[in-house]
Amino acid sequence: MIPVHNEAANVERVLGGCLTTLPGLAGDWEIVLVDDGSTDHTVDLARRTMGGEVSRLRVIEHRAKLGYGVTVGDGLRAARTDYVAFMDGDGQFDPADLSVLAALMPSADLAAGWRMRRADPGYRLMIAWIFNRLVRVVYGIHVRDLDCGLKLMRRTTLDAAMPLLARSALLNTELYFKAQRSGLRIRQVPVAHYPRLAGVRSGARLIPILRAIRDLLWLRLRLAQQWRAPAKVASVAES
Question: Looking at domain 2-233, which CATH architecture does it have?
Answer without folding.
Answer: Alpha-Beta Complex (3.90)
